[in-house]
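Board notes, transcribed. Complex of a protein with KE4.
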Amino acid sequence: MSTKNEQLFLQAKKHIPGGVNSPVRAFAGVGGTPVFIHKASGSKIYDTEDNAYIDYVGSWGPMILGHAHPKVIEAVKQAADDGLSFGAPTPFETTIADKICEIVPSVELVRMTNSGTEATMSAIRLARGYTGRDKIVKFEGCYHGHSDSLLVKAGSGMLDIGEPTSKGVPADFAKHTITLPYNNPDAIKECFAKWGNEIACVIVEPIAGNMNMVIPTQEFHDTLRQQCSEHGAVLIFDEVMTGFRVGLGGAQAHFGIEPDLTCFGKIIGAGLPVGAFGGKREIMQCIAPTGGVYQAGTLSGNPLAMRAGIAMFEDLTVDGFYDELASKVDYLIDGIQAAADKHGIHLRSNKLGGMMGFFFVKDGDTATPQNFDEVSDCDIDAFNTFFHGMLERGIYLAPSAYEAAFMSSKHSQADLDATIKAADAVFAQMAQ
Ligand code: KE4
């Protein structure tokens, strides 16, 4: 007897490739059948049979205030009543732009897009147009969306299907993309020594979230900033995931680095389709209509997404919001780690602000992974066992060992304790 999710998955596959509209949702990395979701509220998502799950994916980061936050929903309802899209400027876009520039000092001008992919793709075109150079530098295991130049040794769902470099990307495209090992200052220096004056930009996840969560060293970031400045390359921080997630000012505030451009997404739309890229006025002014680098979007700055984001920022900027979010993460990680230690499970974790990651290393001497190779050496089977054990107990983690986990302000003490209890039971089983 097939389950409801198996039936829904079968139906979905009739007319949707792999039954999903984004590969990571297909459970390719963990095996089994994806859970089809009917609704969500606060810290929980509900499948089509009304089974509740405590959700640590949060639509891959946007749901920092929890699902269906009343203030956000009301803003969207009011926006909808006023019409869905005009293809003309609205004051709401100005409000969001002002708010982002107020919160993130490195951003002087910002352009809205409809996804993180569009934001990073546009930032790279802008860097190439501004410098007149072709080469770009990215890092192994980092994922910046699915534009051609960036699908080279990338992370996220590409790792689940074992294709870190996508088919369909012409060699002529890929040859301009230099991929370096993440968190390796020497590799950056060697690269710039060889290609320095040909490099248009370096794009980096300042804290990686697409090879699971990896926090690089301050030296990595200082070296990046220094080398880009010395060689006239544009430093692009892809904060689609970390922006307003690891802290109000994002990863750039944490490391004290001023990138030349920053890409945003996810949280700024509060769950509606939004991306953005922004940075130094001198560079951003090269974007049409003020400059010759073309970039556009029918629904960019959509009023529903803007008004949802405005409502959300009201809560994010309340004093203590991120301290409280981080204390929830600390409590959860400490509890799960204690349970793992009790059962002799070799668990490691990373955390910052409202973001966290779990790794199952091969033995007790292995440290928390610091780069893609060390992440790849982790026990993926152990993660998959953990994932399914938690899912069976009503805890929804990202269906991939290469993804991070996200906390919301709506996760209650009861949610956290239930999650720790579930982990303890799964570890007890794994230890047998
Ligand atoms: P989107 O085009 O999916 O809105 O954003 C692409 C993107 C860009 N940069 C970073 C750092 C990102 O994490 C992402 C998207 N993240 C994945 C989750 N790892 C989205 C989930 C999915 O692909 O379905």
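The chain has a mean pLDDT of 96. The chain has two domains: 3-68+320-430, 70-316.
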